[in-house]
Design brief:
The chain has 431 residues and is an alpha/beta fold. It folds into 2 domains: 246 residues, Rossmann fold; 160 residues, Rossmann fold, CATH 3.40.50.2000. Helix content is 35%, strand content 18%. The strands form 4 sheets. A 7-stranded parallel sheet has the order 3-2-1-6-7-8-9, with helices on both faces. The chain has a 6-stranded parallel sheet with strand order 12-11-10-13-14-15, with helices on both faces. The protein has a two-stranded antiparallel sheet with strand order 4-5. Helix 10 links the parallel strand 13 and strand 14. Helix 2 packs parallel to helix 3 and helix 7 runs parallel beside helix 8. The longest helix has 19 residues. The protein is globular and about 65 Å long. The two termini are 43 Å apart. 43% of the residues are buried.
C-alpha cells in the first residue's frame, strides 16, 4: 500500500524526561489534527510516565518508551528500570526507529529537541528523510536565553539537522512576544523554514462543570498551579505563607500540586493548608482547564501550556516564574506583562508573605488578557492544521541535499536518496 491509497498518518515525538509541558503540547496538537481530518491518525512517541492518565480522541494513540529523569547534576538516569542510562537510551532509540518504520508516517513532528534526548531520534530522522517523509521541528515560544541556548545547540551539533534534515520549523507563538532563536547564528536556508503559528488554544470538554474540589466554597477562588510540580515548591510555599500571614485575603485558593511534586513536600503543604480556611488542595487534575475556567484568577509559574490555558480561558493571572535552570518562564512572563496580558511577581529570594498577600488581593482586579489586542494570538491550532494539510497533500519525495557555495541548501528530487552522514556534516560545520 503506497502513501496515496491509505489514510494519512502523523508521528509526533516528545522526549518527556520530566514535567507535563511537552506531553500536553503534543496531545493538544494531536487531538486538534484528528478533529479536523476524519481520515488522519496520529501516534505520539513519549517517555512520560503519566501519559496513560490522559484522554485522547479517537485515532490518537501513543507508544511509551522507557522513562528517564534528569538528576540535579544535569545527568540523566533511568526512571524505573534498574539499568544504565546508555542502555536505556539505546532501547529508546531502537523503539523510536522501529515504531517509525512500521507506522510509516506521512509527516514526522519533533517537539523541542531537534535530535531528541541525547540524539536518540537522529537515526529515525535520517531514515525518514531517505524515505522522503516531511520532517518538522516544533518549538515553544521561548527556549532559553540566547547566551545559554546557542552553546547548548552547538554542543549538540544541531545546525546540520536544521539545515539538511528538517523541512519546516514551527514556533508555537508570535514574534511580538519572543523570538526563541534570537542570538543564534542561523543560515538563511534555516531562517526560511521558520513559521510562527500563534499560541495553541485550549478548549474545555463539553461535559465540564464545576469541579468537585471547589463545591461548597463560599467565595471565589484563585487557582494555584505549579504545572507538573517537580520544581514548584517555592511558589506553593510562598502562597501558603501569604494566607498564613493574612487570614483575611478575600479569595479562597485551590492548590493543584502536580504529579511530580515530592510526596513528602506535598504532604507538608497539605497539612498546612488544612489549618487554613478556604484552602483546597489536590495532587493532580488532567482537566485543569475546568478548574481554571471557574477561577477568579490564576497563580502559576508560567510554563508554556499554563500560559496557553490562561489566554484561552481569558484569566487574570499572576506569574511567579522560576529562573533556574532556565530563564524560559521569566522571559515569557516578562514579555507577556509588557503586552499587558498578565502580571508577574519575581522571586527575590526573600519571598515576603506580605508582598504575595497584596498581589493575591489585587489579582482579581487586573485586566483580562483579551483586553490586549494582539492579532493571531491564539491561532496556533488552525495554522498548524493548515501546515499539516499542506504537507499531506504532497506526494512523498526522495530528496537529496546539495550544499551551495554559501550557507544554503538546495533540495531536489532524485531517484536514489543520498544518506545523511553526521561525521561529514560536522566537518562542514567546522569549516
Amino acid at each position: 500500500m503506497t502513501g496515496t491509497d491509505r489514510a494519512r498518518r502523523v508521528l509526533i515525538y516528545s522526549h518527556d524526561s520530566f514535567g507535563l509541558g511537552h506531553l500536553s503540547r503534543c496531545r493538544t496538537i494531536a487531538n486538534a489534527l484528528v478533529g479536523a481530518d476524519d481520515d488522519l491518525s496520529v501516534l505520539i512517541l513519549s517517555g512520560s510516565p503519566i501519559i496513560g492518565s490522559f484522554d485522547f480522541k479517537a485515532r490518537v494513540d501513543f507508544v511509551r518508551v522507557p522513562g528517564v529523569v534528569k538528576r540535579q547534576d544535569g545527568e540523566y538516569e533511568a526512571l524505573n528500570l534498574n539499568i544504565g542510562i546508555e542502555r536505556t537510551l539505546d532501547m529508546r532509540a531502537a523503539l523510536i526507529r522501529r515504531t517509525a518504520e512500521i507506522f510509516e508516517p506521512d509527516l514526522f513532528i519533533v517537539d523541542k529537541e531537534p535530535l531528541g534526548l541525547r540524539g536518540e531520534v537522529a537515526a529515525t530522522l535520517r531514515m525518514l528523510k531517505e524515505r522522503g517523509t516531511p520532517l518538522v521541528l516544533g518549538l515553544r515560544d521561548v527556549m532559553d536565553e540566547p547566551a545559554l541556548l546557542a552553546p547548548e545547540w552547538k554542543r549538540k551539533n544541531v545546525l546540520p539537522a536544521l539545515r539538511d534534515l528538517y523541512d519546516d520549523i514551527w514556533i508555537y507563538g508570535l514574534p511580538q512576544l519572543n523570538d526563541p532563536l534570537a542570538g543564534i547564528a542561523l543560515p538563511k536556508s534555516v531562517k526560511r523554514k521558520v513559521v510562527y503559528t500563534g499560541y495553541l488554544r485550549r478548549d474545555l470538554p463539553t461535559e465540564s462543570g464545576l469541579p468537585a474540589v471547589v463545591r461548597g466554597l463560599d467565595r471565589p477562588y484563585i487557582l494555584v498551579t505549579p504545572g507538573g510540580g517537580g520544581d514548584g515548591e517555592l511558589m506553593v510555599d510562598w502562597v501558603l505563607r501569604a494566607y498564613e500571614h493574612d487570614t483575611k485575603i478575600p479569595y479562597a485558593a485551590v492548590i493543584v500540586f502536580g504529579p511530580f511534586m515530592a510526596p513528602e513536600v506535598r504532604e507538608g503543604f497539605r497539612q498546612r493548608a488544612s489549618r487554613l480556611s478556604g484552602i483546597r488542595t489536590m495532587t493532580f487534575e488532567t482537566n485543569l482547564g475546568a478548574l481554571m475556567a471557574c477561577a477568579a484568577g490564576v497563580v502559576a509559574m508560567g510554563g508554556y501550556n499554563t500560559f496557553c490555558e490562561i489566554l484561552s480561558f481569558d484569566k487574570k493571572a499572576l506569574i511567579v516564574p522560576r529562573t533556574r535552570p532556565r530563564l524560559e518562564q521569566f522571559i515569557r512572563a516578562q514579555s507577556a506583562r509588557q503586552q499587558k496580558l498578565l502580571e508577574m511577581l519575581a522571586d527575590d529570594g526573600r519571598r515576603d508573605p506580605a508582598v504575595m498577600a497584596t498581589a493575591l488581593r489585587h489579582l482579581p482586579q487586573q485586566g483580562l488578557p483579551s483586553d490586549a489586542i494582539i492579532p493571531g494570538l491564539l491561532d496556533g491550532l488552525p495554522n498548524v492544521g493548515k501546515l499539516v494539510a499542506k504537507h499531506l497533500k504532497r506526494p512523498l519525495r526522495r530528496p537529496v541535499s546539495v550544499v551551495t557555495p554559501d550557507d544554503g541548501v538546495v533540495t531536489g528530487a532524485i531517484q536514489e536518496p543520498v544518506p545523511y552522514e553526521p561525521a561529514l556534516e560536522r566537518r562542514r560545520g567546522a569549516a
